[in-house]
Design a protein that fits this description.
This protein is mainly α and 234 residues long. It has helices spanning 2-22, 29-34, 37-68, 75-84, 88-97, 101-111, 117-135, 139-169, 177-231. The longest helix has 55 residues, at 177-231. The chain is rod-shaped and about 95 Å long. The chain has one domain (36-231).
Length: 234
Amino acid sequence: MISNLIQDTAQEASEVLQDGESVEKTLSIIELITSGGTAGMIIIAVLILMLIFTLYIYFERMLTIKEASKIDANFMNQIKDYVSNGKIDSAQNLCSTVNSPVSRLISKGVSRIGKPLEDINTAIENAGRLEIYNLEKNVSVLATISGAAPMIGFLGTVIGMILSIFEIANSGGSIDIKTLADGLYTAMTTTVAGLIVGIVAYIAYNHLVVKTDKVVYQMEANSLEFLDLLNEPS
């Protein structure tokens, strides 16, 4: 009799284990997104578009900044030689063959040679502002996305919690766990997605700012070098 009791207990334990295994569930990324309901999927879609836009701006600006930072180390030496020898046309031709912000600033300064030094400096500064604007084009959008994406994700969190609370309030004493879970999925997935997009945009923005600052410093250094050349006694 004791042996029969042990066998029955073992059988029941095996059934419980099998039932536990049968309810075990894995969740893919696609299922995680679609489990959040319509509101969750709309917010996730918006965040995905923001992420794509972030990556596009980042790589497009990186290529532009990389091209802008390329300049022959011997460029300024050649400009000095041409200007010192009065070969203004040769200096202009050299600037026109080098496609970079530095060469365009120097070209602006060379075209003003013969005018007061203050006028040359003002022309170079105005050209520099335009070059900086072109370098920073759309970069501010990344700063906006880095702040807006987490808030949009938090909006999904609020919507998900409202849905969950609404279901609890209208459950009539019997809570539908699946419906409640859908609301929680919306809350959690949109929060995570918003944080991911925000972090990516924040890192991309700061990296572009650092790279842009290096090009701006290069522009300033070469402009000062050119002005010092003009300020040298004949």
